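ARCHIVE RECORD
Type: protein–small molecule complex
Small molecule: magnesium ion
Source of inputs: curated submission
Record status: active
Notes field left blank by submitter.
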Amino acid sequence: MTLAYTKESITGITLHYLFVPLPHTLSDAKVLQGKQKALDGVFMTCTEIRTSEGRTGEGYTYALRAGGRSQYELAKELVPTLMGEDPNQIGYLWDRMHWAANTLGENGLINQTISAFDTALWDLKAKRARLPLSHLLGCFHDRVGCYNTTAGYLTFPIEDVVKKARELLNAGMGGIKLKVGQPDAEADIYRVRTLRKELGPKVPIMLDANQQWDLQTALEVGKAIEDCHPTWLEEPLNAYDIEGHRELTHTLQIPIGTGEMLSAPSDLLRYIDASAVNLIMPDAPRIGGITPFLKVLDRAREKHLMVAPHFVMEMHLPLAAAYSGKVWVEHIDWLETLFRESVTIRNGAMMVPDRIGSGFTFSQEKLAEYRLDRTVFE
Ligand SMILES: [Mg+2]
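STRUCTURE (tokenized, with ligand):
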């Protein structure tokens, strides 16, 4: 017997505009170099997409420091391109949203805003298939290595970083990221050496310069800390300096990575095609959601690259599980309170949820608590 597909349609969309405060104000190299204010919270546009079959898909995008309100306002303008359409035609809807705001360009605000819908559409599709999102996408892993980022900010004295790192490692964390890129490179080198000495030779230590070095500095500091064997050096240079990254990748023994600041999927693909990095670090909300993220994974797979998605661990965990190669998830707990479920960390890895859909659902109480605005479309 041939089974016919029953068309589903989008009947309603709710947009929530939130500010999720951080427990501590945080500084990375961009702040210490005087370019940005310290980070005190995350702006989010969260979507709930309802369908004719009674399902609801949840998705979101985010902005740090500025731009959150713009994402929310643009999201309102994109809603009419989705209403009444079949949510299972995700590629078609992605293009429709992109064409609707085509004069904004091929990256940045438009892709970040589309993510809020695209991620909800994939959640819906997994729910329709009655599968965990990881399984809908091909699932290679039931656990993914994870490392913590929030303990290693430049805000904290190195003694505090060491203490917190030990606590996290004892609780099952798989590695520790240390921020570098201060105006005084010697201070960076001291912190890296201290952390390596205190944690011993085996603990994975990741370094992140948040784009604050020039090529010469990156080469000098990189060579000075090679014997500390960091797992990688992230964003040593400007996010668009493909040639510079390529030179570092082919000169230093430390694996080089970048990608979180790129909002055009084509920019990430260019890095991969140019063999300019050892690991690629895409951010699904920044590049237009899961649809373009999967294209990046495919290309990374062809080149056997390591993948380490940036931030939003709740979104990236099932996506990381769909990557065949070496992959890490970044443990940043800033959004943890927004979801009813939380991640489970054991023996250096995050467990991939077996719950149907994305695996993480909004707490309605927290949506209300963090909400700055809301619009309901029926
Ligand atoms: Mg980073």
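CURATOR ANNOTATION: The chain is about 35% helix and 20% strand.
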